[in-house]
């Protein structure tokens, strides 16, 4: 833009965006003209407003730059084609708002909605088949009446609210230079890559994204030989091509590696401002999907596509940064005297403690429910991990005692014993040790200079979890500012003791949320109950947290969600949860009825024919008889379970929305698991040549 626009126009654009002012039409027209020329020079023939409805993915409608123009020449009207792109077309477009999830905000006959250009997120060009290209314009999506129907609008609102709260705290501390604080985000995206030909033979994977039946192979991840192993050449070719495509649209992918499970991988970017990071994460998922297709692979983003092996998450690394580039969550070498950091830290802990249920709702889905709490992902109990050093700092401030000397390994109060590791190898240098270890069992862990929100699901947009986190932290930052103003009284800036008194106050109030141990253990479940921390196991229960009075007040009073937007989002989440499970239930029933049982019956018939032929020959077919008896018993058990599943689905489909969600969570999941157990028992008995679906051995190896 700086090279394509006249200098005064570019300066005006930057001023309007940085000052969070509305763009004037003259500037929008100039930007639109420059964007069209730039895009067409790179082969683009169309443009699209690219937005994020509440479907977990993105949406787009392509319009060409083609415009017909008429004029009178020698008394005759002549029509000819030109390329044009106006500021109005750049600023606003109109998709059908009633065709996207809206939770009752729009009726079927009320179609109008608007997408509006987000000037903070850069436009980019995506290339398609046969040399085609499209100009993508990141946008927000609202209804005709102005309600947010997307993930981005509320993210931008929450970011502004948090910025205002953080700037207010900095003002209280005497910082009059900082004008804006941004949330930064980095999403570590995990996924599986499997052969597309095998994927096409699994109706459950194609329809639901996960295997509804299937026995884990004798070897999967027990030997721990896949994690950080050599990336298979076919996979490396796919990921490298995806990275190239992503680099062309400005997505800064930095890391790639094998994950724990067979055929599981991860890519991670350089961290960016949160709204741009969300755009780039969704673009990463789309590009991986398209490039994998070209390599005859299929990418699976479902949180738990294979039972018995690790599922996939999207670790959202979250922090706050001033407009001068200072990371507010950088503890420095002496966090005990970094008072700005300590105040921000206790505000975050306060937010997580008071609104843990709200954060739990942000990562609840039918797919993520399979992963949370397993020995691979953070539990459903929301807690925060700080590490030995920071925990000691807060404990010392609370107790009004000196902080332990972390350079002295003999101190019993400290478990890490120093900040330098000596490998006892003459050719190796001393190794600097981080102030904290990492706790992979914590849903919300401090990792050096940021918090890692590990519970976010791999398939979901990271936007909503960040929105609710921003909202909670904004409120707590304001409370810290109020407490600090009260402590300092008439003084221009608070004293050291004023600050420590506030840190002490918030540490004492929220210390129950801090947990340094094994979040997978049963002991933690009991301990969390003693502390009064919610253990929200089901999605319908989690969704209700959105409408809990203190959470509802938090979101509405700060202007992040209106009451109608919040209610609609609750209904959308609950409806999607029920629909996802009903789709799974119907898919499972169909696979059992149309594939699994017929294959078992064919094998059963062959066994019976073999027994009869041997009987005619006077041979005792005892082995076949034993297998046939066991197989018959397994077929009967599966048939009975499948009939019960079908009856339950019919019953649930007749219920109203909230009852559907409850029944799906409590009854349908149990019935589906019962069918799966019976089917997997049958898979172990039916000969390979009769089994109708690719097995885990083929899919994972």
From TrEMBL:
Keywords: Coiled coil, Kinase, Transferase. PROSITE patterns: GLNA_ATP (PS00181), GS_BETA_GRASP (PS51986), GS_CATALYTIC (PS51987). Residues 638-685 form a coiled coil. GO terms for molecular function: glutamine synthetase activity; kinase activity. Residues 45-146 form the GS beta-grasp domain. Residues 151-596 form the GS catalytic domain. InterPro entries: Gln-synt_C, Gln_synt_N, Gln_synth/guanido_kin_cat_dom, Gln_synth_cat_dom, Gln_synth_gly_rich_site, GS_Type-3, GSIII_N. Pfam families: Gln-synt_C (PF00120), Gln-synt_C-ter (PF18318), GSIII_N (PF12437). One of its GO terms (biological process) is glutamine biosynthetic process. Belongs to the glutamine synthetase family. This is Glutamine synthetase/guanido kinase. It comes from Rhizoclosmatium globosum. The lineage of its organism: Eukaryota, Fungi, Fungi incertae sedis, Chytridiomycota, Chytridiomycota incertae sedis.
